[in-house]
Amino acid sequence: MTTCEVIIEVDQTRGYVFNCIFEVKKWWNPEFEGSHAQLSDEFIIRHGDIHYSKQQVVGLIPGKKIEWLVTDCLLNWLENKTEWTGTKMVFCVRRYGNKTIVHFKHEGLTPQMECFDRVKESWDIAIKDWLFNFIVHGTTR
Fold first, then answer.
1. Contact, 72 vs 56, CB < 8 A?
2. 3-state SS string for the chain
3. What does pTM read for this prediction?
4. Residues with pLDDT less than 70, the chain
5. Strand order across the beta sheet in which 4-10 lies
6. Which residues pair with 60 in a beta bridge?
7. What is the pLDDT of residue 2?
8. What pLDDT score does 1 carry?
9. Please, what sign has the CA dihedral across residues 74, 82, 112, 89?
10. What is the pLDDT of residues 92-116, one digit of tens each?
11. Which phi and psi angles does 116 have, rounded to 5°?
12. Angle at 122 between CA 115 and CA 37, to 5 degrees
């Protein structure tokens, strides 16, 4: 892979899964400010004082696709603290047989970047554990 990608498969409907992704506070981070319900909406995610990122909704196809562009960030654990700026988080949701597939990609995040290994590991946890469990069990734990 030349970018950060994570895929999960669940038994729930595509619409249900798509709606779960929108519950950012419940599966990704409770330190969420703003809105992400429609195009051009902006929101902020914080992880204490080590991570700040501002996203804008730049793509939205209900039930199928969500795209968030990182317009600003401050990643205090990196030498290049703005490394995420200009990257994009993309969620594609589709049906395959009797399963729903979530294909997450953090576009622009490449192995050459300082943060790649740690962020790849973090997205694996966030998508394969937190989002998956939220979709399947209604809780991240």
1. no
2. CCCEEEEEEECCCHHHHHHHHCCHHHHCCCCEEECCCCCCCEEEEEECCCEEEEEEEEEEECCCEEEEEEEEEEECCCCCCCCCCCCEEEEEEEEECCEEEEEEEEECCCCCCCCHHHHHHHHHHHHHHHHHHHHHHCCCC
3. 0.92
4. 1-2, 141
5. 4-10, 99-107, 88-96, 65-75, 51-61, 42-47, 32-34
6. 66
7. 55
8. 46
9. positive
10. 999 999 999 999 999 999 999 999 9
11. -50, -55
12. 100
DSSP annotation of 41 reads -
Query: Given this model, what pLDDT does residue 31 score?
Result: 86
Output the furthest CA–CA distance in the chain (Å, rounded): 45
Q: Are 83 and 114 in contact (CB under 8 A)?
A: yes
Alpha carbons 4 and 88: distance in angstroms, whole number:
11
Q: How far from each other are the two terminal CA atoms of the chain, in whole angstroms?
A: 29
| Amino acid residing at 104 | F
Structure tokens belonging to residue 84: 């995420």
